[in-house]
Amino acid sequence: MAQDVLLAAVIGAQGLKGEVKAKLFTQAPDALPRYGVLHTKSGRKLKITAFRPAKQGEAVIAFEGVGDRNQAEALKGTELFVDRATLPQPAEEEFYHADLIGLEVRDSEGRVLGKVNALHNFGASDVLEFARADGDSVHLAFTKETVPVINVADGFIVVAVPEDAEDNDHVE
């Protein structure tokens, strides 16, 4: 799945004719249909036959072969991906969130803290999750202040580690 990019997630059925409501992760709200056939984690292919923007960051979508509410409800929670190779190359100093997964996480001294597991958005802003060598997960706000260096080409990011008054050799 490392070569896939998450573009949307089905959040529920819409109406009786098989349409779904989806949360969009594309920069432009109307971009999703331009990527062609989407696929799920299990490999199921879904072709968009109708698309209309809904409220901010959401859309109502009809897929080929999904013709009633029951079929649409069965898609709830389904993540919709596109192969990374089909996306345009990002401009300099731009990246896809998917490009960060697996990058080494370092502090400002160059010490390795772990590897990027995920980027989340719980509503307020993006949150970076990385796994430390001991298996613990660390969540940091994904801002320029907390992640001042992103070097996809060389495979690492630098994070600003919060100071710990008692023990300064780890992240809490």
What does this protein look like?
There is one protein chain. With 172 residues, the protein is mainly beta. It folds into 2 domains: 83 residues, Elongation Factor Tu (Ef-tu), domain 3; 62 residues, Roll (SH3 type barrels). The chain is 6% helix and 40% strand. A 6-stranded mixed beta sheet has the order 11-10-9-8-13-12. The longest helix is centred in the middle third of the chain and has 6 residues.
Radius of gyration: 19 Å
Strand runs, count = 13
**Reported CATH architecture of the largest domain:** Beta Barrel
* Overall outline: elongated
Strand order of the largest sheet: 11-10-9-8-13-12
Number of helices: 2
Structural class: mainly beta
Portion in strands: 35-45%
Tally of individual domains: 2
CATH topology of the largest domain: Elongation Factor Tu (Ef-tu), domain 3
Please summarize the sheet with the most strands: 6 strands, mixed
State the helicity in percent bands.
under 10%
Low-confidence stretches: none
- Terminal-residue CA separation: 29 Å
User: What is the averaged pLDDT score?
Assistant: 88
| CATH class identity of the largest domain | Mainly Beta
- Write out the CATH superfamily name of the largest domain: RimM
Keywords:
172 residues, mainly beta, Elongation Factor Tu (Ef-tu), domain 3, SH3 type barrels, six-stranded mixed sheet, five-stranded antiparallel sheet, 2 helices, 13 strands, 6% helix, 40% strand, elongated
